[in-house]
Automatic annotation (TrEMBL):
Domain of life: Eukaryota
Compartment(s): Membrane
InterPro entries: CD300_family_receptors, Ig-like_dom_sf, Ig-like_fold, Ig_sub, Ig_V-set
Spans traversing the lipid bilayer: 6-25
Immunoglobulin domain segment(s): 29-130
Keyword entries, A-Z: Membrane, Transmembrane, Transmembrane helix
Keyword Mitochondrion: no
Record organism: Amphiprion ocellaris
GO molecular function, one term: transmembrane signaling receptor activity
Protein name (record): Immunoglobulin domain-containing protein
Main location: membrane
GO cellular component: plasma membrane
């Protein structure tokens, strides 16, 4: 009887650790630099998943992307959607996110997400917007 109990506890612990290991997800990160007033397009592809997600609904959300209220824009496969200065195109080969007329306040962490059964998958997008103004100096030499 003690052996059966020990075996049952061992089996439960193995299942627990297996499930815990399966919930650890590695998130791919993209670091993007854009210039104030310009446009930048980000390609989210090569999702870290075992199943084909080419035709799934994809979206862009703000960090932490843990609730629907964080979703900025969502597109079905084959669609292009716009929300203010952000355009989202969901194609078979990836999700294309275009930020137009960049401002400094666009600098932040975003996530490209793909809807899946169970947990959605994400690609982290760190957008840094820099001021593109340059100061030009003219040197005049007098001899």
């Amino acid at each position: 009887h003690d052996l059966t109990l020990l075996f049952s506890i061992s089996l439960i612990l193995k299942c627990f650790f297996l499930l815990a290991a399966l919930t650890i997800v590695e998130v791919k990160t993209l670091d993007i630099v854009g210039h104030v007033g310009k446009n930048v397009t980000v390609e989210c592809s090569d999702w870290n998943v075992w199943t084909n997600v080419n035709f799934n609904v994809k979206y862009l959300c703000e960090s932490p992307c843990s609730e629907d209220k964080h979703i900025i824009i969502k597109a079905e496969y084959g669609q292009t959607k716009n929300n203010n200065r952000i355009e989202l195109t969901n194609r078979e080969n990836g999700l294309f996110v275009t930020f137009t007329n960049l401002t400094m306040s666009d600098s932040r962490k975003y996530y490209c997400g793909v809807e899946r059964y169970g947990h959605d998958s994400f690609i982290e997008v760190n957008l840094k917007v820099i001021d593109g103004k340059f100061i030009h100096f003219i040197f005049i030499s007098t001899k």
